[in-house]
């Protein structure tokens, strides 16, 4: 059975093509806005990738000691979802089209996508920590870019989410520092 295809509403319904930036109501120069939109779409891609990775781990982790990890993963994924919403809305306000599907995510991805396989607890968290590290470094660069371009609202948005992502990364580090995160067959 083949998957049904979504109907393309046609050219007359198209408001804006993907990967374009139009003039914005914020009075930010179109070229500056395009640079910020490109950066924010990379951030969105990374957030989507990490969100899906955390959800996968939430669904599949097993063992005696996973309860606090699973609770963290659920909450952390919720925080990433909130970040994607705020950043996507900002992309639209800047005249861009936010990353919104697999093609765009792959196009702007700052990191690889974890294989679909199911991993043990420690390797799963190590993969999560690596993804957090990529996002932290990228968000810091994009805060600096938005500052350079005079987009203070984007600076505020990114700084807020950067703090949250750094705190979550620190929590993952704490889980990994706990030597009991190994599966024993007792």
TrEMBL record:
The keyword DNA-binding applies. It holds the Pfam family Ferritin. Transmembrane segments: none annotated. It comes from the Archaea. Keywords: DNA-binding. GO terms for molecular function: DNA binding; ferric iron binding. Signal peptide: none annotated. SUPFAM superfamilies: Ferritin-like. Residues 38-179 form the Ferritin/DPS domain. Belongs to the Dps family. PANTHER family: GENERAL STRESS PROTEIN 20U (PTHR42932). NCBIfam families: DNAstvprot_Halo (NF041388). This is DNA starvation/stationary phase protection protein.
């Amino acid at each position: 059975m083949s998957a049904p295809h979504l109907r393309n509403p046609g050219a007359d319904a198209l408001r804006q093509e993907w990967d374009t930036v139009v003039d914005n109501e914020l009075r930010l120069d179109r070229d500056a806005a395009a640079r910020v939109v490109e950066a924010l779409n990379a951030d969105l891609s990374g957030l989507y990738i990490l969100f899906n990775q955390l959800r996968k781990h939430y669904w599949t982790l097993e063992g005696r000691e996973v309860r606090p990890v699973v609770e963290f993963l659920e909450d952390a994924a919720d925080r990433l979802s909130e970040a994607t919403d705020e950043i996507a809305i900002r992309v639209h306000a800047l005249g861009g089209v936010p990353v919104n599907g697999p093609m765009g995510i792959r196009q702007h991805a700052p990191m690889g996508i974890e294989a679909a396989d199911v991993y043990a607890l420690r390797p799963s968290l190590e993969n999560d920590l690596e993804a957090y590290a990529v996002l932290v470094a990228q968000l810091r660069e994009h805060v600096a870019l938005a500052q350079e371009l005079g987009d203070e609202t984007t600076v505020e948005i990114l700084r807020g989410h950067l703090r949250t992502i750094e705190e979550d990364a620190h929590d993952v580090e704490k889980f990994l520092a706990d030597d009991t995160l190994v599966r024993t067959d007792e």
